[in-house]
Amino acid sequence: MANAKLSLREKQNAVQKAIRDKLGIPEGSQTYVWIRDMWDDEVIYEISGSEKNLFRVSYTIDADGKVTLGTPEKVVEQTSYKTIESLQAKYADLIQESAKRIYKDDKERIKKVLDLCHAILTTPQGEEIDIGEAIKECDSCIAWLKAQEAAKTEDGESYPASAFAYAPDAEKPSEWKLRLWEDPTKKVTRKQLGAASAALSPGGFRGQKVDIPADDLSAVKRKIRAAYKSLDVPDEDIPKWVKEANEVRDYIHESISVPVAEATTENIAKGIVPIRIIQPGFNSSKSRHYSDSAVKDAVKIFEGAKMYANHATKTEEKERPERDIRDWVATVRNAKVSEKGTAVAEAHIHAGWLKDMVSNLHEHGTLDKLGVSINSIGRGSKQKIDGVETFAVESLVDHPFKSVDFVTEAGAGGAVGVKESPEILDVCIIDLARLKEVRPDLIKEVESEIDTKIKQEAKKIMETQEQIDKLTKDNEALAKERDELKGKLTEADKAKAKAEAQAVIKEAVGKAQLPDAAKARILEQFKEAEKADGIDAAIKAESDYLSKITEQGKVKNLGGSQPDAEKARKELKESFKASYISSGKSEAEAEKLAETAVNGR
User: How far is C-alpha 255 from the geometric centre of its chain's CA atoms?
Assistant: First the structure.
């Protein structure tokens, strides 16, 4: 460091002489060294000549005034004496920040600074330029821009991080995904939420499925659900792709201190006490995390709710869940969401003893010892928020036994506890063991009703089985009767057909010019025939036979030799056989009958 006892002029002369000595420039020489600018530990100097040469060098001066120089560095002549590369870096930063920020003001100013930087950076080498003011303006603009919201451009519009369901780093728009705003004017719309939800489905949105890290997926779904609820979309209409499979209901019992700073003496005298019902974010134990929509639900649910002195005991909850009217001390009025996003209201106290207590507490400055505690039911799921495993409460469920009670254990402005045992009988979340404990009569009634229904169903089954057995027997009897009738009809048809055939046969035989013995033989042959087929052939065969035998049964007129007679006999037999077959006889029967006919017996 330079010696503080030396004047600026003395320091300048000492450094100038040290530079001349180091360069070997003697006194009286035409080569001069001029100090252009000087600081406590650095100096800019010029060496005269045909070309201006500027150098920067560090220095120190000890207590005796001795100067020690550093290594000289040649620089470009600038008012700020900074290298041109510095401005180039500032210019690049300004362009980058202006492209990724949302801002409406100072656009003209930023454009002027960008134009100035561009003009300086494109100045031909060797010309004198002053970059000090440009760097100063760049720094000012960059600082201002960094205070503005970062933005991501989609479809020609700029959107902040809040417009996206997934924005892990507010300063890195390139990582933002699932836009929830349809445009900067309309902002969140059901149409845009539908597209974001579809992108999380197996098929994606228009075939494109978004890739979200597994650890962040629950938070993304939670943000989309909250956006749907901000549009008052019913739970059943929210796409299943953004719902949590493990969504459940749970009991909510949070104690919160009275906001003393908001209490006024005038209102306290009237029995009006400001209260905080619930606030967004973690409770003090971080066992629960309340969404903005849960806070809004609290305003709707608790407006007009009864306030009691202390929570009910387990015995009281079991025997009188609707609470004792003597414990009803106030009513919740003017519930709303505050500017800080907290559900707040007023407790309008009607119990005189509590009014006196509140006034005394306020007078002695101990009103903060009084607290309020809510009894409700929340719906949500187990999730990791900000690295903490917690129950994310997305909504509060209205319940006939909800209440906001005055208690002596408050949480200094925040929720302090969670009841582990269920105190509110909500059929959606109560388990069987608890139901048996608090309502054994109801269990017996349900069991009795189930037993009655089982017996009724068993009786119906038995009656039905009896009807089935009876119908089965009736069906079997009808089937048997049907088969019998069918058999009788068949026999009748056969008998009729046989009678008609016999009539035709008898008529044909009766008209035939044959001896009675021959007719009898033909009738015997056809006595079982059900058709008259073959009767004409049989009559002809009988006639031919008689014409070829003598009265003693001998064959005559066979034309001489024994072979001819045998031939005639065979032909006659075949004729008889053919007639028998045509009448329905089998070949064996026809053979036998034909043989008998030819032999005459």
Answer: 34
C-alpha 490/C-alpha 542 separation (Å) is 34
Q: What is the per-residue pLDDT for 5?
A: 66
Residue that wins the pLDDT comparison between 432 and 195: 195
Query: Which residues touch 159 (CB under 8 Å, ≥6 apart)?
Result: 151, 152, 153, 179, 181, 184
pTM assigned to the model: 0.45
**Mutual orientation of helices 132-146 and 84-99 as an angle, nearest 10°?**
30
Q: How far apart are CA 233 and CA 227, in angstroms?
A: 9
Q: Tell me the one-letter amino acid at 517.
A: A
**Checking phi first, is residue 553 left (phi over 0); if not, alpha (psi -120 to 50) or beta?**
left
Can you tell me the distance from the alpha carbon of 35 to that of 50, in angstroms, rounded to the nearest whole number? 18
Three-state SS sequence of 22-46? HHCCCCCCCCCEEEEEECCCEEEEE
Between the alpha carbon of residue 109 and those of residues 104, 144, 296, the distances in Å are 11, 11, 42
pLDDT digits (tens, 9 = 90+) for 520-549: 888 888 888 888 888 888 888 878 777 776
Which amino acid makes up residue 394? E
Provide the CB-side half-sphere exposure for 560 (13 A, CA).
1
Any bridge partners for residue 68, and if so which?
60
Read off the pLDDT band of 330 (50, 70, 90).
very high
Q: Which residues pair with 38 in a beta bridge?
A: 43
Q: Bridge partners of 46?
A: 34, 54
Mapped onto helix, strand or coil, the DSSP state of residue 418 is coil
Residue 66 CB partners (closer than 8 Å, separation 6+): none
Q: Which amino acid is at 8?
A: L
Convert the pLDDT of each residue in 22-33 to its tens digit: 888 877 676 777
Residues 555 and 561: their CA atoms lie apart, in Å, by 12
Is 169 strand, coil or helix?
coil
How far apart are alpha carbons 328 and 397 in whole angstroms?
Answer: 22
Q: Coil, strand or helix: which one is 421?
A: coil
Sole residue written with tokens 């009025």: 333
